[in-house]
Amino acid sequence: MKKVGFGVIGTGIVGGAWHADVYSRMPQSRLVAVCDLDERRASEVAKKYGVEAVYTDYRELLQNPEVEAVSIATPDYAHR
Q: Which CA distances in Å does 3 have to 25, 26, 30, 39?
């Protein structure tokens, strides 16, 4: 079975602790990219889950050909 490449936008409590963890452990998915305005926080989550692609701009994450689906885990006020 082909694994779906996931990107997580927002690496705070919900995105970094829950979404990234689930996508990294599900047999049918693989976590391939993370994004957060706070580069340090995004880098910490990436390191924890072995992700090479780290972004501070969601538009760059969306251009990554390995990203086939995204989880938007940003605060409500940040949704546009």
A: 11, 9, 6, 27
Is the domain defined by 4-78 classed in CATH 3.40.50.720?
A: yes
Domain assignments of the chain as residue spans, ordered by start = 4-78
Under a CB-based contact definition with an 8 Å cutoff, are residues 54 and 37 in contact? Answer: no
Give per-residue pLDDT as tens, 35-72: 999 999 999 999 999 999 999 999 999 999 999 999 99
Contacts of 33 (CB under 8 A, 6+ apart): 5, 6, 7, 8, 51, 53, 54, 55, 61, 64, 66, 67
- What pTM was estimated for this model as a whole? 0.91
